[in-house]
Amino acid sequence: MTFWERHPGAFEGISDIPPIAPNSLFRTVVTAYENQNLRGTVGVLAYMNGEQQHGASAERLFPRLSDGSFENHSKRLKTTIGDCDFCFLVNHLEFLDESLWRWSRDFLSGLFQNVGMNSLGVFYALFFGTYRTTPFGVHRDPESVFHLPVIGTKQMRIWPIDAIDPNSPIVHSMDYRHSLDRSVLLQANPGGFIYWPSRHWHTGEGAGELTVSLALSLFCFDSLEVALATQLVKSLVAEHGDLKQPVRKHHRIPFDPTNLQRTSENLPDHLHQAAEELRQHVSDEALIVGWLRLCSASGFLTPPQQRRHEQIRPQDKVSVVPGDAALYRVLRPGLTAVAVNGHVTMTSCPGVGDMVQLLCSNSTHSVQSLLDALSSSDKSPTMLQDALNVICHLIRSRALNRISDSAD
User: Fold this and answer.
1) pLDDT tens, 53-86?
2) Do residues 364 and 318 touch, judged by C-beta distance below 8 A?
3) Which of 24, 180, 270, 406 is 20 to 30 A off residue 295, Cα-Cα?
């Protein structure tokens, strides 16, 4: 943990980072582009020779399923645009790739347990192309980043926070040849990664060869109270989102990935402080639900999308997905919030906490045994249906799998 939020570094020879095949990642990118319903959740941007492309100019550049791979897509573009550099940026791919999200959750588990969840959200940014420098030039972000190469050698040039004046002409410039003092050039290959702390100036570099890499990005803020407030009331982002001030200290929230239920029950003091500032806009219940969502998602802003609705019956059986903890909080008599993998549902079933605890005790259950675990004396058809709805939510949110019955 000596590098975290202190020093950039490159690390090689770490196997299975990330555990995603390039061709599978390519298909996910095509899905992100072709599915118009995902626009706004998964962002896709295209650049050519450092200029962002729009409309028809962008459409001709985007990958197609018929390309089959990043390499073939690059070859097609070479015949279309010649030797022009191109770069694609795709945000929030974890929304479409459950295995990537699960690996990332485990990858960050040790970090969170040791230093706390010093973040207001985690997300992925995918960069791929033949660009020689990042199209938006030298810049800095509020994220602490683990950059994971998938194809090719990834190079990043990084400067300390105070090495560049925010008003310098090299900010957002692709020409910084005369400003290399105090910078370091780091590189990594697939199976390794590059790390740099939040607010460090940086830009990608390349030699015109195809590279594909994933940036696992953790938001870090100097004022965590304000940052948490912006998550709840997004209109405050513009007012308090000044990234030009250097980080003075980091507020860490105790976070135990091995006992998420206990973590979710201890509402951080910073959330209480944020609530005092936003009392007219945010209720205590909304605050608790937001914290439940963030805990169950391990900090990710866009965890994997839910499955389609699936009917469940008392005679069915379900298996628990290892590592997925269902969390719950009683908001008030007659209303309980249940969260798993970043998705929250509300239930009026008063004994649902007992059912959730039973789920954590074994790997396979009959649905009837889960209903029998309800401590409530009210087991009317309405309440039992409410409990079934919670089980359906856990299935849709990928924490439970329905075990198929050959007799169906």
Assistant:
1) 998 888 899 999 999 999 999 999 999 999 899 9
2) yes
3) 24
